[in-house]
């Protein structure tokens, strides 16, 4: 048996050898010479083609260091670049330990090198502080964090400050040659993280004195999607902003750092300088830090004045916990592609009393009644002559209503003049089952009842304009003061100020739930903007939804 197996293996090896020799005679040539860059482009493209297990597996595969090394080797062979020409070793380099000194020559381009430097406090040496993912230094694989820079283009860096090194790079032509003493030999994890977050605050590095290097930081706006590619540093993460067309990563404040901003955390003598080949692109000025800033009424039947204004800092950073101060940071998201068989996403409209949520909802339904619908509310009051069951309200007994409360079937409910009123989950599901876009108006604190993969709510915050525009656009407007629609009155100055206070409070406490913020100055313009935005949800473009929805989604058989 062993002889038979050995003979079979030898036969197979002989056949393979003959086939390879035959193939070698054809002198095959490479199809292309840039497999590594194509793999990087493929990784970017895959982000917008669903988030299935196959896509995750492929992204993980092409992001592994061994696979990247294989592609770089392929490109070297394709270009017949077997023996790279290195510059001659300087004579004084022999003074150092031969195994601890290396000479790195990089071609100068318009892009930054993608590395930051700082001065080691204990030794006074200039060391590489960070390597930015996707930059020239990262792609070369020749410069690493912790490496000590001894010379730049033959100029010694001894007793020099980081800011004095930048002109040496700016005035160099063709290539830049570094003399480096390698730092720590620990293996660096270069695998690509498949973590995406939506920013819940605005960030401008030019207004942040705590950032180690302003040129290495990434500016972003609230709502932007970032790919987190490095979390080795507890205070500064590396991230890419999707849609900016650049594969380079930059610094963004971590959750821990951003949460400490309100404590006025200042970094003293801890600045890193960007190694960049562009002239006059560095500023040393530190500026003051500025923290980032049914077609009926909802069943929030009581109006409480919020005349007492909170301090500015608490208004910016307030949370759902009374008295707590906690900033919004990031929420993990994943790409979602709506399939033709998928139901429409639930549209949740929120805003302060009197801002015009109900008017926008009414206009949407009137514009396309076959497309938009509203859930029919439940109530325990008696049906009136002109009302219809299931059209105006679902009229139920007090016992039945309270049983629904105990079974958690209400998104929101309340009492008015001794009667219950509420928005029921079953009513929302009926509208969605009809293939319509369900419009729901609730208080943001109740969104948690529909914030699931089943409803996939798209939350629109309707915000009032500045008080001057409010006075101009609402000077003749009237609004309903009670559920029966019997009391109607004009807006007062107190109503305007209360509307602005409520809007600020809602934004500070629940802004992390908002997908869209619309300022309702002119209602006709706002309606067109809202309608166009809602219609985009049915287009085949990628939508970013909370990762928790996909984790909790039921598995299909």
From TrEMBL:
Residues 192-262 form the SH3 domain. InterPro entries: GK/Ca_channel_bsu, Guanylate_kin-like_dom, Guanylate_kinase_CS, L27_C, L27_dom, L27_dom_sf, MAGUK, P-loop_NTPase. Keywords: SH3 domain. Residues 103-184 form the PDZ domain. Residues 28-85 form the L27 domain. It comes from the Eukaryota. PROSITE patterns: GUANYLATE_KINASE_1, GUANYLATE_KINASE_2, L27, PDZ, SH3. The keyword Transmembrane does not apply. The keyword Mitochondrion does not apply. Belongs to the MAGUK family. PANTHER family: MEMBRANE-ASSOCIATED GUANYLATE KINASE MAGUK. This is Membrane protein, palmitoylated 7b (MAGUK p55 subfamily member 7). It comes from Poecilia formosa (Amazon molly). The lineage of its organism: Eukaryota, Metazoa, Chordata, Craniata, Vertebrata.
């Amino acid at each position: 048996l062993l002889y038979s197996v050995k003979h079979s293996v030898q036969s197979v090896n002989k056949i393979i050898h003959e086939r390879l020799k035959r193939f070698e005679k054809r002198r095959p040539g490479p199809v292309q010479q840039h497999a590594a860059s194509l793999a990087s482009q493929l990784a970017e493209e895959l982000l917008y083609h669903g988030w299935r297990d196959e896509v995750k597996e492929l992204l993980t595969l092409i992001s592994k260091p061994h696979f990247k090394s294989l592609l770089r080797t392929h490109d070297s062979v394709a270009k017949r670049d077997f023996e790279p020409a290195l510059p001659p070793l300087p004579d004084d380099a022999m003074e150092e330990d031969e195994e601890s000194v290396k000479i790195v020559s990089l071609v100068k381009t318009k892009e930054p090198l993608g590395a930051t430097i700082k001065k080691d406090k204990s030794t006074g040496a200039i060391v590489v502080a960070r390597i930015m993912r996707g930059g020239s230094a990262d792609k070369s694989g020749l410069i690493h964090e912790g490496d000590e820079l001894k010379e730049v283009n033959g100029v010694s860096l001894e007793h020099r400050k980081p800011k004095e090194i930048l002109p040496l790079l700016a005035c160099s032509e063709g290539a830049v040659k570094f003399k480096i003493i390698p730092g720590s030999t620990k293996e660096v994890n270069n695998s690509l993280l498949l973590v995406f977050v939506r920013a819940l605050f605005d960030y401008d590095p030019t207004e942040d004195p705590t950032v180690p290097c302003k040129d290495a930081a990434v500016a972003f706006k609230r709502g932007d999607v970032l790919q987190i590619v490095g979390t080795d540093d507890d205070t500064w993460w590396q991230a890419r902003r999707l849609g900016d067309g650049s594969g380079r990563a930059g610094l963004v404040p971590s959750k821990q750092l951003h949460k400490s901003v309100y404590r006025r955390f200042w970094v003293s003598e801890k600045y890193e300088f960007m190694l960049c080949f562009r002239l006059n692109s560095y500023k040393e000025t530190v500026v003051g830090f500025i923290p980032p800033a049914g077609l009926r009424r909802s069943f929030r039947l009581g109006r409480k004045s919020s005349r007492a204004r909170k301090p500015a800092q608490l208004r910016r950073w307030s949370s759902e916990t009374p008295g707590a101060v906690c900033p919004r940071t990031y929420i993990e998201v994943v790409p979602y592609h709506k399939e033709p068989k998928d139901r429409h996403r639930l549209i949740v409209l929120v805003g302060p009393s009197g801002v015009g949520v109900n008017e926008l909802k009414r206009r949407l339904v009137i514009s396309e009644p076959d497309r938009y619908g509203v859930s029919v509310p439940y109530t325990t009051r008696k049906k009136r002559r002109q009302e219809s069951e299931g059209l105006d309200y679902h009229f139920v007994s007090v016992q039945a209503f309270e049983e629904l409360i105990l079974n958690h079937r209400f998104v929101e409910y309340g009492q008015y003049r001794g009667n219950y009123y509420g928005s029921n989950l079953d009513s929302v599901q009926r509208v969605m089952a009809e293939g319509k876009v369900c419009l729901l108006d609730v208080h943001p604190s109740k969104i948690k009842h529909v914030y699931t993969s089943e409803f996939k709510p798209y939350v629109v915050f309707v915000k009032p304009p500045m008080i001057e525009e409010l006075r101009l656009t609402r000077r003749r407007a009237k609004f309903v003061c009670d559920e029966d629609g019997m009391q109607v009155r004009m807006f007062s100055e107190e109503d305007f100020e209360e509307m602005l206070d409520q809007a600020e409070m809602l934004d500070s406490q629940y802004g992390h739930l908002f997908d869209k913020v619309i300022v309702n100055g002119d209602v006709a313009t706002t309606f067109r903007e809202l309608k166009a935005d809602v219609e985009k949800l049915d287009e085949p473009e990628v939508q970013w939804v909370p990762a928790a929805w996909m984790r909790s989604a039921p598995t299909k058989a």
